[in-house]
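Following the same procedure, sequence and fold were stored together, as reproduced here:

>
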Amino acid sequence: MTPPFVQTSLFESDPTKPSPADALKAAESRFKAFVEEHPSIAWIKDSEGRYIYCNQALLNTYKKTRKQLLGKTDECIVPASIAAKHKRLHSRILKQQTSLESVESIPLPDGQIRHWKIRRFPFKAQNGEDCIGGIATDVTERIEAEEAVRLSEERYHSLMENAQDAIFSLAPDGTLLSANSAFERITGWSLDRCVDQPFAQWIIPSEQNRFEEAVHELMEGKSPPTLEVYLRAAQTEPVPLEITLTAQQQKGAVASIFGIGRDIRKRRHLENQLRQVQKLESIGQLAAGIAHDFNNILSVIQGHTSLVSLNEELPATTRESIDAIKQATDRASNLTRQLLMFSRKQVMQVEPLDINKAIDDISRMLARLLPEDIHLQTHCENSTPLIQGDVGMLEQVILNLAVNARDAMPQGGKLTLSTSVVSFGPQTNPTIAEALNGRFVCLSVRDTGCGIPAEDIPHVFEPFFTTKEKESGTGLGLATVYGIVKQHNGHVDVESKVEQGTVFRIYLPAEACQNDKPFRLSQLEKAPMGDETILLVEDEPSVGKLVDTLLRKFGYRTLIAADGVEALKLWRRHRDEVDLLLTDLIMPRGISGGELAEQLVADRPSLRVVFTSGYSGETHRKNLHLKEGQNFISKPYMPQDLAKIIRKQLDSPLSFGTGLKRI
């Protein structure tokens, strides 16, 4: 007896049930309804690949009717290349009598690409003909999601591996789980050695506790601050890392710790450089202040010795003493000039300059500076054109390069200074990319020293870069050379080979000059006279008294003020009488010489102005255009020089102006 829970066959004889034929027909109807309504595509093809059945999903997908599709092959709905591929698959399935499953990308009539998971299988029809059935499910969303995950993983992996920072993960107990290649690069340790080891052991002992405390705070739900610790490295000194830690939560508990470690060696180096710059700036400010006061003293000494020397009845021995005082004053003036150049408070005193003469002058000093085992040679091309330059600054360039050459030849050698004239055009010497087109005077400084490694040459002009011992150089010598050359609108390059010496070439524009020789105010034998009224503003009483005496000797009438406030009071009383303002740039009580000149020229544009200063930090004001020998004279100065510049300013057309930008 059949148990009641066991279903009997549909085809058992039972007068209350339908006949086998009716049951089969009903089953076929149910199957057809199921297949027709199913969202997957279903079809049956004959051995030639012609459709003999397709469900509604296929017709809807390809916008076809059964009449249009039945009896046709795939070529009527997909590109020929795909249809040919399907034909080869069908042949293989029929030949091997095996099922085949694949994922294919097939375009729809509107051009959209869809991804299908297709299962094809062989079977025989009722008439014994070989047929192929197929079911295709649209898996586009799944494929695209998988692709998105894959791309995301690739991007994450690429980000991890290409990051400059060390990225790592830790177990809650501080064990290193994984790290990127930057960790290996920064520390020099292989990951195989570090993984599964306590991360704290790679930190120097004195800072391990701080790191462990940070991990402990993270486990308690706190946000520890960013840490700066030193990590032990394989081949170098400990590496300073700036580490940020983040807890990775899972089910309310810390599952792992994510960390980013930034190598801050460069930042520490820059911080040290900044401290060095600040130190140098402080020294520069001190040097500038000393030079300012010292120049006022030198002005008094130089002025009074000039006044005394005007007495033609002086004994010869007294005149020799006065000449010695003048020479000492000149040397002291050069010393303050160097202090101001170091502090970058020195205005460029540009004049027509013979570079050959400058080399000849400084060669005498270099002969005393260089040791006996270094032979100094000069080779200057005849008839070298004049350049527009500051002789003191260019002497500083030669001096710096000579000192570098001396240090590169500890066992002795040869130092050669030479000049030549070169011309550059668009196609000439493309290696000198920064040089302007035109004619240049080339100053070469060549040594036979140890040379510069090729990897260091691109950095030689960078501030603080030096290959010398820590106590032997600041790394500012060549940076100063570069800055001065650029101020002169020139170009400098270097050529060197290890153990074969070095040559620095400096290219300075050759400009047409009206004077055959450099113009120097101190060359004037006789001071020009005048009878105009000059408003003299000088905060140093001894200097003011001296300049007042000089101006009166030159025939001028003077009004003296100790600062800008007094000068404004005098201006209000004598406005129409004053022809020229002679003012120091740096003054007390809140009104500088530049500001005073602006106010007076605004009140009377015809007023002429001459500025003077012991140092020229104020000359960098944007509305001042100061030019030595025209509207500016630096202390200390010779009386003849002062008389010349005043006369030149008074006799100049209004367009020559006061040096204020608006004129």
